[in-house]
Design a protein that fits this description.
alpha+beta; 8-stranded mixed sheet; 11 helices; globular; binds flavin-adenine dinucleotide
Length: about 400
């Protein structure tokens, strides 16, 4: 299929965003509506260019999330559906398991609460381990107690997105890259009660549209008359890479017990599909929504973050954590020290700079980070306004929820 071709002038469904979520939604809509016309519009010249290809690549089991939340429900459902899809499509995926390790007394109490949460969420195969049992699974790890999730897996989410794109094209949908949506007009102003979507490659009239714009989802929402609250703040996550020859010190995935006040999981050690071992990600407010380089700044992005009242309320509430994360982001020594709590034998000379990703995190005007997935309706459209981790894990289940929303 020619993904450089202009989009069709008229479709039943337009899906904006060619990341893992947009492609999962496009696939689900075509599964439910065989023969419908559908176009995926992606701003970049390739698919999966942003969060989808800049993550830890972990298929989470559903341990962390508030029982009853969308994240809890859709992570457990989505992980099962995604691992089955990978098996069916022969996409490399390794069930390497995960240990969440408590290294001091305060964390023991938090680990109890996490275990309780995980059991309420229906996470399968969980076990609580003592120090000796930790060493039998991860000989280099140290801790007082750990929660073991054997079904946690690693995958390359970009591979999954590419497989979804093939499914979409095989079902008759079309995919258009370098088709950045620049304006959206709804209702009578668009003519014929549809949505008029403009891109530099031409305009599309869509009966219904779904917006999965990741780091741009607040701007796309506002463009369509959606709520200006919440705003997306870009949170950069940098990794260190363990040098070749030393990766074997970790076999699977090692995580700390997360700080319950923060929505991130804490810097962890992840053994990728290719055998590489990454430490991270850090969590620092970024100067650009594509700050893959630490120093990258885009004035418009910076202004949007700095002018949002929620940003300052957030920073005031978490000043200590913000400074700690800045320190981890700029100093390998500091991040290694954090990781040494889990793997005492790790040395500064074992690491080199690694990749980075930028999270799209929705932040309310009141300074509260939106933790759960958030979907908003506007005229003829459904907008995904917050799809943080584990949205890649949950993509198939989240796509079903969004398709239900489209069906009204
Ligand atoms: C550092 C990091 C680690 C993570 N680790 C994990 C993990 O281990 N497990 C997990 O489940 N999740 C993880 N996540 C979260 C996960 O990556 C995201 O939740 C998921 O990729 C979101 O997918 P998406 O399709 O919504 O977003 P994206 O992949 O960002 O895709 C959005 C797409 O929309 C396009 N777009 C934007 N604006 C426009 C426009 N105007 N017109 C057309 N197209 C547009 C973009 O170019 C992009 O391709 C991690 C994220 C990061 C950053």
């Amino acid at each position: 299929m020619d993904r450089a071709a202009p989009p069709p002038p008229q479709v039943d469904f337009a899906v904006v965003g060619g990341g893992i979520l947009g492609l999962a939604v496009a696939r689900e809509l075509l599964n439910r509506n065989p023969g419908a016309s559908l176009a995926v519009l992606e701003a970049e010249d390739r698919l999966a260019a942003h969060q989808t290809s800049h993550s830890s690549g972990v298929i989470h089991a559903g341990v962390y999330y508030e029982p009853g939340s969308l994240r809890a429900k859709l992570c457990v459902e989505g992980a099962a559906a995604l691992t089955a899809y990978c098996d069916e499509r022969s996409i490399p995926c390794r069930r390497s398991g995960k240990l969440i390790v408590a290294t001091d007394e305060v964390e023991l109490d938090r680990l109890d609460r996490l275990e309780d949460r995980a059991r309420q969420n229906g996470v399968a195969g969980l076990a609580r381990l003592d120090a000796t049992e930790i060493a039998s699974i991860e000989p280099a790890a140290a801790g007082l107690s750990a929660l073991h999730s054997p079904n946690t897996a690693v995958v390359d989410f970009a591979d999954v997105a590419f497989a979804f794109a093939d499914d979409v094209e095989r079902a008759g949908g079309s995919i258009h890259t370098s088709a950045k949506v620049t304006s959206v007009r709804a209702g009578h102003r668009s003519g014929a009660g549809r949505l008029a979507i403009e891109t530099p490659r031409g305009s599309v009239m869509a009966t219904q549209a779904v917006f999965c714009g990741g780091l741009q989802s607040d701007r796309l929402g506002r463009m369509s008359g959606g709520n200006p609250d919440p705003r997306i703040v870009p949170i950069r996550g940098g990794y260190l890479k363990v040098r070749s020859g030393r990766e074997d010190m970790v076999r699977g995935n090692l995580y700390p017990v997360p700080d319950p006040d923060l929505p991130f999981l804490g810097a962890h050690l992840t053994r990728g599909l290719d055998g590489s071992l990454l430490i991270g990600p850090t969590a620092m407010l970024a100067g650009a929504r594509d700050a893959y380089r630490l120093a990258k700044v885009r004035p418009r992005d910076l202004l949007d973050t700095a002018s949002w009242p929620g940003t300052w309320r957030l920073v005031r509430r978490h000043t200590g954590a913000a400074f700690r994360e800045i320190h981890h982001s700029v100093s390998a020594r500091s991040l290694v020290k954090e990781a040494q709590r889990l793997v005492p034998g790790l040395r500064l000379e074992d690491v080199e700079p690694g990749p980075a990703g930028v999270r799209a995190q929705a932040l309310g005007r009141d300074g509260k980070l939106i933790e759960d997935f958030l979907v908003e309706r506007t005229e003829h459209a459904v907008h995904v306004r917050n799809a943080p981790s584990p949205a890649a894990t949950s993509c198939l289940a989240l796509a079903r929820l969004i398709a239900d929303e489209v069906a009204g």
